[in-house]
Amino acid sequence: MRNFWNFYTAGRIIFGAGVVNQLGRIIRDRCLKRALIITDRQLIQVGHLARLEESLPSVTNLEWTVFDGGEPEPTIETAWQACELAREFSPDVLVGLGGGSNLDLAKIVACIARHGGQPSDYFGFGKVPGPTIPVIAVPTTSGTGSEVSHAAVLTDNSNHLKVSTLSPHFRPSVAMVDPELTYSCPAKVTADSGMDALTHAIEAYTNIHHSLLPVDPGREVPYDGKNPLTDILAEKAVRLIGRHLVTAVIEPGNTVAREGMSLASMLAGMAFSNSGVAMVHGLEYPIGGEHFCSHGAGNALLLPYVMAYNLPARTYELGQIANWLGAPTDGLSPEQAAQVAIDQVSQLKSRTGIPMRLRDLGIPREALPRFARKSAGIERLMQLSPRSLSEEELLGILTSAY
Ligand SMILES: NC(=O)c1ccc[n+]([C@@H]2O[C@H](COP(=O)([O-])OP(=O)(O)OC[C@H]3O[C@@H](n4cnc5c(N)ncnc54)[C@H](O)[C@@H]3O)[C@@H](O)[C@H]2O)c1
Ligand SMILES: [Zn+2]
């Protein structure tokens, strides 16, 4: 019995339109002198790097350099290239500018710059021996919550799998969340990353309760299960996503919708990185590793099917999610109300252009048993599921999603 829970987040959060202009002051206040900025060419093209750099000359004797080789769903090789630049430059702070992909790269580089070794040395939970070089995370998507989370995800091309490094030392020192940076986000990235945030919130809220986590109370675990604080954060995130996601996709310059989504994704990040994500993510990792599909789209595709599997164990919670997404459930039975949540998520998928079924991604049916086997091996996520799952049941979910 685990009769306690923990809550961690970024060391400091600065949220609001225009806050990116404060980067120089943050660096100055911490007496940092050598900044390595991790970003990608698309973000340079839309002017975000220039915007970020504007405040840097105000820091006396600051030197900075830029790694512009970030990419969606970054590979281990890309992480290694960024590490080599860090070895030459010897930064004392990493600034991640981008979506979850670049923020995750910044965390890995910050770790290797301090502790040496290579990315695979730290895969899994609890392998980072101590604090990394500080990371300032500046998200440009509204989705992953990486700016507050303890995770970094890479793509392992040799094993066709997404691999996570989880460590309390991976929480950024500072999260600078500036909704203005998301205005340029293309519709597909807005949709996919926004549905990732919805998945984080729903998984955080429907996970196993912290007191039921099947681990020795003295053992440190990557995720604690749900608690009252993660519930509150998840609820607010679901409400905001229900209100703002579709508008953000179809009206990219809608400042209210963009701010709502920036807040939602950060809150969902705070929720899931303590409570945990479960089998939507557990099923997405092998699929994303083999078939190029964004993490958000893969999760969104699978989300209603996992919700349907969880319905018998999470009927009440799903009924609440239906309400938070704005659907009336008066007069319905608890099961019917829960079904409304699943229907709402399916509608959000179709309104945001997410593929509805696995076959729409060009995945052959014969691949499903392999995916089920790989997912069953992701123990840290399996144990958070509100209903226990065998490999056959995972295959059943994948088949229903096919
Ligand atoms: N660390 C975590 O806690 C965590 C959680 C969930 C997902 N992830 C990982 O994050 C990655 C996905 O991140 P993402 O969904 O934020 O997308 P992303 O970082 O992969 O970005 C997708 C594309 O959008 C572009 N882009 C991003 N912001 C833009 C903007 N404002 N204007 C123009 N173009 C922009 C990028 O240049 C990139 O080409 C995956 O690797 C996933 O596994 C990490
Ligand atoms: Zn995710």
What is the percent of helical residues?
40-55%
Ligands in the model, by name, code or SMILES, are: nicotinamide-adenine-dinucleotide, zinc ion
CATH C-level category of the largest domain: Mainly Alpha
Low-confidence segments:
none
Strand order of the largest sheet: 1-9-6-4-2-3
What is the alpha-carbon Rg in Å? 20 Å
Shape descriptor: globular
- Give the total of beta strands: 9
Q: How many structural units, i.e. domains?
A: 2
CATH topology of the largest domain: Dehydroquinate synthase-like, alpha domain
Largest sheet: 6 strands, parallel
Task: Offer a quick outline of the entry.
48% of the residues lie in helices and 11% in strands. The protein has 402 residues and is an alpha/beta fold. The longest helix has 23 residues, at 228-250.
Describe this protein with a few key phrases.
3-stranded mixed beta sheet; Rossmann fold; alpha/beta; 402 residues
Tell me about this structure.
The protein has helices at about 25-30, 40-45, 50-55, 75-90, 100-115, 185-205, 230-250, 255-275, 280-290, 295-310, 315-325, 335-350, 370-375, 380, 390-400; strands at about 10-15, 35-40, 65, 95-100, 125, 135-140, 150-155, 160-165, 175. The chain folds into 2 domains: about 10-180, Rossmann fold (3-Layer(aba) Sandwich), CATH 3.40.50; about 185-400, Dehydroquinate synthase-like, alpha domain. α13 packs across α15 (about 390-400). The mean pLDDT is about 95. The chain has 15 helices and 9 strands. The strands form 2 sheets. Strands 1-9-6-4-2-3 form a 6-stranded parallel β-sheet. It has a 3-stranded mixed β-sheet with strand order 5-8-7. The protein is an alpha/beta fold. The longest helix has 23 residues, at about 230-250. The two termini are about 40 Å apart. Bound molecules: nicotinamide-adenine-dinucleotide (NAD) and zinc ion. Zinc ion binds near residues 144, 196, 199, 200 and 299.
